[in-house]
Amino acid sequence: MNGKPVFFSNCADCSCKSSIFKSLTAEELELINKGRFHVAYKAGEIMFKQGTPSSHFICVTSGLAKIYIEGYGKNLILALIKPVDYIFGPGVYIDNKHYYSASAVEDSTACLVDTIIFKKLVRSNADFAEDFIKRLSNQTLFNFEQVISLTQKQMHGRIADALFYLSEKIYCANPFNMTISRQDLADISGMSKESAIRILKEFKEEGILSVDGNLFDILNIKQLKQISETG
Amino acid sequence: MNGKPVFFSNCADCSCKSSIFKSLTAEELELINKGRFHVAYKAGEIMFKQGTPSSHFICVTSGLAKIYIEGYGKNLILALIKPVDYIFGPGVYIDNKHYYSASAVEDSTACLVDTIIFKKLVRSNADFAEDFIKRLSNQTLFNFEQVISLTQKQMHGRIADALFYLSEKIYCANPFNMTISRQDLADISGMSKESAIRILKEFKEEGILSVDGNLFDILNIKQLKQISETG
DNA sequence: TATAATCATTGACATATATCAATGAAGTGT
DNA sequence: ACACTTCATTGATATATGTCAATGATTATA
User: Fold this and answer.
1) How far is the CA of A49 from the C1' of D25 (A)?
2) Do A133 and B93 lie within an 8 Å CB cutoff?
3) Is-contact B137 A91, C-beta < 8 A?
4) Lowest mean pLDDT: which of A16-20, A162-166, B33-37, B123-127?
5) pLDDT band at B1 (very low <50, low <70, confident <90, very high)
6) Measured by CB atoms within 10 angstroms of the end CB, which terminus of chain A is less buried, N or C?
């Protein structure tokens, strides 16, 4: 546990402030700033655990985190959270429980803000509330894509989707440095680790993908898109 | 098409008003009442289609509707919508597009309200906004349950979950009258129609379920719960 | 450096599940 | 009452995918 709080300047000056805060006034930002903690996590450390009370909203300021549901014997990764994005589970507005777990995939830092403050701002600032609802809506759309991929595509299509997710949404690069494990890849794609590895191997053999250590390179984007489409 | 509008008294007096409206003032209700349409759908009729512009929020006042994503060759039913519940897709706050389709499963009636009015109320009434966020959160939790059931349980567990969903959440009865087709049951459970039928047959043979015409009766709730748990 | 521990890879095998095809049942319109 | 369409059921078969077990590779630790 390397969880000692590190205090940065303040939210108003923060260069890695989540875009959700753009509709806040200086006073509102200061409100957030006052009740906020900055914490460092080592890779692998759990940020919070499914089933525990959820008291804070977490903004990832560096590194990479995963949020995942601990299901029946295996995990389903709902999303990877990169800087500067935040984690705000659906339980906050229901029963203040976490409905998924979160952990650091890479060494990470994060700001924690009390959800009471967040909810207060939602009530008092309509722009903020609307931005928040937009964000919730986007998450829902993402969930829809994921559930369709997981339930209606075969493994090749699901791995293709996962690779595009990593390349386009998370690492934002094409030869990209894979910082998640094969197990994580499998947990994103809803299959066993062995199956995920096998698909990667096939992609390599077909010249669609090259893997050099942790460096992944999608060589034939068009063909991989095709595989994603045809399931 | 039996889509002729039927005008009821008004929202303030409406006995089948969705609970989301409870935080609205009389004037706000009147605002909704003014721009509202009451429509009747026959079973099977489409209310709106995935990909089309979404302009109205739909409150189901009688009958039963389904919302479903048209995926790769087959549909996934996200939820059944019974009175008095409403349909408000995530696209409304993103790009005003429908990200799923909706259709009437039984003969149904519904009230349509312009989403512009709805969004205006979200901005002006904090209680209403908070109720709406709660509702979105509940939907997300439901999505989580569904995706875990669909991706981590085998067919028996998924059918068990679907049967409990129908009995406990939709029909709210135990011997219940099944108004959805086997194909719909399969589309809820993420499997082929034939597989769904086979599982039902097995449940019948094991005395867990009785099916008499459209009357379904879960005879051994405990065992079915067990099947749901063990996947 | 040695040792343990985790992670990645591969093969063999069992099985859950979809697909295809045929048939029966039930409702619908003429 | 009739043909006709949709829906439900069943069986046979192919295959996608998970599980188990073994091994290699890499990293952490003493």
Assistant:
1) 32
2) yes
3) yes
4) A16-20
5) very low
6) N
Which domains, and CATH codes, for chain B? 11-125 (2.60.120.10), 153-229 (1.10.10.10)
Q: What is the enclosing helix (H) or strand (E) of B52? A: none
- Would you place residue A17 in the very low, low, confident or very high pLDDT band (cuts 50, 70, 90)? confident
Tokens at residue A116, please?
């009471």
Model-level pTM greater than 0.85? yes
- The residue count for chain B: 231
pLDDT of residue A1: 38
| Weakest-pLDDT range from A30-34, A129-133, B115-119 | A30-34
pLDDT in tens, A142-169: 999 999 999 999 999 999 999 999 999 9
In this complex, which of B73, B94, B231 lies closest to A138 when CB atoms are compared? B94
- B165 CA: distance to closest CA in chain A (Å): 18
Among all residues of chain B, which has the CA nearest to that of A154? B72
Split at pLDDT 50, 70, 90, the class of A3 is very low
**Cβ–Cβ < 8 Å for A109, A65:** no
Residue of chain A whose Cα is closest to the Cα of B143: A143
DSSP string, chain A: --------S-TTT-TT--GGGGG--HHHHHHHHHTEEEEEE-TT-EEE-TTSB--EEEEEEES-EEEEEE-SSSEEEEEEE-TTEEE--GGGGTTSB-SSEEEESSSEEEEEEEHHHHHHHHHH-HHHHHHHHHHHHHHHHHHHHHHHHHHHS-HHHHHHHHHHIIIIIIS-SSSEE--S-HHHHHHHHTS-HHHHHHHHHHHHHTTSEEEETTEEEES-HHHHHHHHHT-
Nearest to B194 by CA among B157, B155, B220: B155
| C-alpha–C-alpha distance, residues B175 and B214, integer Å | 10
In this prediction, residue B63 carries a pLDDT of 95
Average pLDDT for chain B = 92
Average pLDDT over residues A23-45: 91
Cβ–Cβ below 8 Å for A126 and B124: yes
Q: Say if the Cβ atoms of B123 and A134 lie within 8 Å.
A: no
Report the distance from CA of residue B202 to the C1' of nucleotide D14 in Å, as an integer.
Answer: 23
CA B187 to C1' C29 (Å) is 29
Cβ contact A155 with chain D strand, < 7 A = yes
Q: How far is B96 from chain A (nearest CA, A)?
A: 11
Give CA–CA dist A157/B162, Å, rounded: 26
CA A189-A192-A195 angle, to 5 degrees, is 90
